[in-house]
Amino acid sequence: MRDPTAFLGQEYRQLVESQLDWRLRVLEGPSTPWCEIDGKRVLMFCSNNYLGLSNHPKLKEAARRAIDTHGVGSGSVRPIAGTMDLHVELERRLAAFKHAEASLVYQSGFATNSGLIPQLVGEGDLVVSDELNHGSIIDGVRLSRAERAVYKHTDVADLERVLASAEEHAPAYRRILLITDGVFSMDGDIAPLDRISAAAAKHGAMVYVDDAHGEGVLGPHGRGIVSHFNLGRDRVHVEMGTFSKAFGVVGGHISGSTDLIRFAYNKSRTWLLSGSHPPPVAAACLAAIDVLESEPEHVERLWNHTRRFKQEMGDLGFNTGHSETPITPVIVGESGVAQRLSARLFELGVFALPIVFPMVAKDKARIRTIMNAALTDDDVGRAIAAFETAGRELGLV
Ligand SMILES: *Cc1c(COP(=O)(O)O)cnc(C)c1O
Fold first, then answer.
1. Domain finish residue from 294, 323, 348
2. Residue 1 maps to a domain
3. C-alpha 387 to ligand 1 mean position (Å)
4. pLDDT of 18
């Protein structure tokens, strides 16, 4: 008899043959600048924990305390019996941090995009999307029954063209939702949200920004891209983000008007049907907001390291693309070269993974580095020296 699961092994072997399978590296201890990976002590150069908050004493203490006062689980989904005072307080503090009327916390950023987007738009609507938007946005759009129009990456003229032709559409679209990443995770460039939101306003479109990589990085105190461009809430209607990156914990969120938040929690299926944050998670997220408000030095150090790294890598002759943020790609071309560079860096004590096709174009394979505020000046110097050594050996510089 035919084995109905035969495809599982076959497809996996195909991935291995084309070197597209994931081989998991195991962190033996916390995600700190110096960490143990597969038994080797290395400098972490690819975590999203930009500010080192995942191991910050205030967050750890808040989590421990919440376990004592509230236990380890919330016991339910938010709408039934899983809303604790900690969740309410977290949303109140997040809204204040974001200078928004209200905020809502989801289980993850992925759950936010895949739960909310299909409620904002449906049949007879149009989603206008940057071609490099995150996979969770793409899945959210697929779950809706809206049509989709893609514009060239961060290209406002092309966006204008798409919006103008949407206006001609017959029958007229009921709603238009413009959606973009704030900071693009593969290249580290920033969406020109000031011009994007102006174009959207001209055509009456809603604006949704996914600021997963901008929070804790852009704007005063790391408030994010909306604050970075100083845009009003009439210009950006849904500011979405995550606690899993610079905030150092886990969880997705949105900020905007009270109407948006009430709509979102009554309709998002991911929010309604999946368990809420355990108390230590909610408490650690709250402490992360405290730290961002009271310790601006982390964001400052992140940017100082970032400027130095880009400058010195450029001076050495590396191609670091057009990044404007602490995500700095080191573009090497062929995927095999990126894999060899990453392996050599690991031997030299630097952990940074190669990003290859299909995540980026075939000839744009790269090592993606992400700067971290918790690194010392000496650590950054060592990493640059390791890149220089490995780059020379591979004939890249
Ligand atoms: C990481 C990321 C997400 C997903 O966030 P999680 O909270 O980790 O699920 C969504 N959008 C973008 C742009 C991201 O980079």
1. 294
2. no
3. 28
4. 85
